[in-house]
Amino acid sequence: MVQQTIANGGVQYVPQTAVQQIVYLDFDGELTSYNGEILTVENVEVQNSGVTAERIADIVAELNARYADKNILFVTEKPTVADYSTIFIGKTDAFSSYGDFAGLAETIDKDNQISTDKAFVMLDFSASNEAIISTISHETDHLTGTLDHGGNGLAAYADLTVIDYGTTSTGLVVSSGTSLTVSSGGVVSDTTVLDNYYQAVIIESGGSAVNTILSAGAMNIFGVADNTVNSGGKVNISSGGTANSTTVNTFMHIFAGGSANDTTVNSGSFHIYNNATACNTTVNGGDVRIYQNAIHRGSLQIASGTVVSAYGGSVIDFTLTGCQTTGDYLINDLSRISGKPTYTITVSSDQAYGNYKLAQGAE
Which of 41, 47, 114, 288 is most deeply buried (CB count within 10 A of its CB)? Predict the structure, then answer.
């Protein structure tokens, strides 16, 4: 086999010669087991998928067309030969304590040495044909060793959809055909996002993400995201969402009820919309806008040649809480703000008496 680098940050193995691999697709439900490389689960009960015969025929035809040049054949009748892989399609709760997966394979079978391994596609008739085909394809590539997208634990074998309560996952790669949802109590760290999909990552309320590299797609934040580097995607912060210490090189928008703290904007767009809040922003470049009823608090450091647009009805607050009289200007150059925002001052109940530097260039 020849090893090639692929865009998802993992490894693609391209088979040069191989005995035909038969993949049996079971849509009817089954009591089976999961005998993975890192986990064994007995009594995996897969429900009948409820997918109609007509749809199954279309799914199989499309899969066989896609894999025609890879010497892989998909069938829906149980083979009479001894060696074949099986993919079960249907709902099961057997893996619910480990996360919520769209698909899960037993192996990442480099060189396709195991021709009898299994995978599970936890979708049913309510999913589209394309979703079922995509997930079967993802798990087939694991079983035949042609896809290794990284990730810790079961995530390395999965088409991952949800990191659930109490689950922590490190080193995930969200690549083509996958998405990631972190629900309440779930945590992901050191995630790399390469999938150009508008819902590639969703951080739900109560979920958190730390040290994310967003190279493509979108990260939609309703929970908390810390230390995100946005180098090629879009960050959207919605009601209840908070982004801390984000580096923006392409796109970050804060919507009503969302907030961003300690943001560095190098390029792209950084927009604070109605009833959204940003605090402590360093602007080295890009298109920065503070819209009506939006609030910016704390430090606003603006590089030479860069302008922050503040619309009428927006608020720029000189937040002195935690500041010292010996500190630098909260706004380094007031002339770099265009528009007519309302300027306010916020002090704490125990604010120290003295002279504070608010804005350089103020008259």
Answer: 288
> Is there a contact between 278 and 258 (Cβ–Cβ < 8 Å)?
no
Q: Residue 60 and residue 46: Cα distance in Å, rounded? A: 20
Contact 249, 269 (CB under 8 A): no
Low-confidence ranges of the chain (pLDDT < 70): 1-18, 100, 151-152, 160-166, 176-178, 195-199, 363
Backbone phi and psi for residue 231, each to the nearest 5 degrees, phi listed first: -105, -10
* Identity of residue 192: T
**End-to-end CA separation in angstroms for the chain:** 71
Candidates 310, 303, 270; CA nearest to 288 is: 270
Pick from 250, 241, 172: nearest CA to 217: 250
Half-sphere exposure in the Cβ direction for 109 (13 Å, CA): 20
Yes or no: say if 28 and 51 are a contact pair by the CB < 8 Å rule: no
Q: Name the DSSP class of 143.
A: H
Give the helix/strand (H/E) hosting 62. helix 53-66
* R_g of the chain computed on alpha carbons: 26
Spatial separation of the C-alpha atoms in residues 109 and 106, rounded to whole Å: 9
Q: Which parts of 54-207 are beta strand (E)?
A: 72-75, 85-89, 100-105, 118-121, 158-163, 168-170, 173-174, 180-182, 187-189, 192-193, 201-203
| Reported pTM | 0.64
CB 107 within 8 A of CB 157: yes
3-class state of residue 297 by DSSP: strand
Per residue in 189-237, pLDDT (tens digit) is 999 988 665 557 889 889 899 999 999 888 999 999 999 999 999 999 9
Whether the CB-CB separation of 196 and 177 falls below 8 Å is answered with no
Cα–Cα distance for residue pair 344/353, rounded to 1 Å: 18
d(CA 153, CA 167): 11
> Mind listing the pLDDT tens digit for each residue in 66-119?
998 899 999 999 999 879 999 999 999 999 888 768 899 999 988 888 989 999
Average pLDDT, the chain: 88
- Residue 25, beta-bridge partner list: 87
In 3D space, the residue among 65, 71, 63 whose CA is nearest the CA of residue 19 turns out to be 71
